[in-house]
Amino acid sequence: MTLIAAPLTEAAFAPFGRVVEAPAKAGRAYFGPLIENSRPSASLDFSLTHTAASALPFEARVMERHPLTAQAFLALDVSRFLVIVAPGSASAGGEEGPDMTRARAFIGRQGQALVYAPAVWHHGMIALDHPGRFSILMWCAPDGRDDEFVTLETPVTVGA
Predict the structure, then answer these.
(1) What average pLDDT does the segment 43-57 reach?
(2) What is the pLDDT of residue 41?
(3) Is 50 contained in some domain?
(4) 24: pLDDT confidence band, cut at 50, 70 and 90?
(5) 6 C-beta neighbours (distance < 10 Å), count
(6) CA 54 to CA 40: how far, in whole Å?
(7) Which of 33, 86, 88, 22 is nearest to 60 (CA)?
(8) For this UniProt entry, which residues form the secretion signal (predicted)?
(9) First to last CA, the chain
């Protein structure tokens, strides 16, 4: 299966979460309510990640989701980045996994951030062009239910 990555826009990404833009003029924009949490025992986790550069076409092999919290990614030092998302689908055994037949791919740019809605399947962040750094915000609790990972039976290729 091959996906063609489209530009990351608020409208196109809406089924999976939110895209926010850095202010064009001096000033501050507030987006705190976008980082949803359904557990009083969770605390806000702030992390930084450095990813190697990847090129298109890209082969996605693993998808993840955070069933009880939103997850925000802010591109710190990235010119372009690849986003791969999919809605959930229940298997015959009752387990929910990503429905890759309805997956979408997007290319984000510097000045954009995104917030995955709770339980949205997505691939880890992929920096294009050169290595990249991202900031990540999400709620985490000691109950161990924050992350779910699935290895895809058939990898998905993403092109431009």
Answers:
(1) 93
(2) 86
(3) yes
(4) confident
(5) 14
(6) 38
(7) 86
(8) none
(9) 14
Max mean pLDDT range (19-28, 113-122, 135-144): 113-122
Question: C-alpha distances in angstroms, 132 versus 5, 59, 79?
Answer: 19, 18, 8
Cis? peptide before 142, omega within 30° of 0? no
How far apart (Å, rounded) are the C-alpha atoms in residues 99 and 119?
13
Contacts of 159 (CB under 8 A, 6+ apart): 2, 3, 4, 5, 56, 57
Query: Domain containing 42 — which CATH number?
Result: 2.60.120.480
pLDDT of residue 69: 87
Residue 25's pLDDT is: 84
Q: How far is the C-alpha of 119 from the C-alpha of 134, rounded, in Å?
A: 21
Query: What pLDDT does residue 84 have?
Result: 98
- The domain tally of the chain equals 1
23, 35, 37, 50, 66 from 30: Cα distances, Å: 10, 11, 17, 25, 23
Q: Would you say residue 110 lies in a domain?
A: yes
For residues 26 and 150, what is the distance between their CA atoms, to the nearest angstrom?
42
Whether residue 157 lies inside any domain: the answer is no
For the entire predicted model, the pTM comes to 0.91
The answer to whether residue 132 is domain-embedded is yes
